[in-house]
Amino acid sequence: MLNVYAIGASRNIGYFCSLRLLAKGATITFLLRNTSILESDEAIRPYITSGHARLVKGDAMNASDVANGWRHAQFDGARPVDVLLSTVGGLPHFSLSKGVYMDPPNLVTTSVLNILSTFPADSQPTPPKIITVSSIGLTPAEHKKLPLLLKPLYGSLLAAPHEDKLGSERVALEAAGMQWPRSNPEPREGIMPAGWKNTLQKSGVVFPELTIIKPALLTDGACKGDKPKAGKAAYQVSEQVIGNGYTISRKDIAHFIAEVLLEDWAKYGGKTLNVAY
What we know:
This is NAD(P)-binding domain-containing protein. By secondary structure, the protein is an alpha/beta fold.
């Protein structure tokens, strides 16, 4: 059964995905700023009791906390981590002086950097499968291919969180040993932590099994993946921007990760994938 280290999984995509994986028999170590969130969760509590859900207090913005989570997830070196699931995300804020902003502005970027740079290769020579969740439409080229009605929203209200997710993709591709496309802009000043490339290089680890999932506009709708219509896929998956896909529910992204991606890693793993209805 899978041994999973989950960060940002106290709610939304990470939470829904974790429930599916736990039901399949996985063991999941959760890094949580507030462990009481899951300690009091009726759906998670039985898995805590059985030892399949393990809660570690820590902040993904703190490299030492993330490293401690790796140690717990590896059972102090006795068991390798099979999957690292990062679904860290924040909510935009608004003020008359700043407009729409994120605080901190680089939550996702710094978290992904900490996750990848603290992987304990000495106790696990083969890196795990890495899954991170980003967003569609982050670069100018991707923005041009968005559905028309999404362009104003992505260019204004979601600009700040998307700058952060662009930074996380920059870090992820570097860690996977892949070139950042020349047509892609570099993340704006303040997003990339100082010396981030050196931080990655010091670890000396390359993550070839790294997958970036880029959902369309996320909703709180029901999961369609469990009951697809006859002869029709519940959602679209493509390495290209899905120009006719406006939304996708968080529960369906969780379905894709747990029921499709991890079940057919040979087909989907190690890629950047757009998912939309």
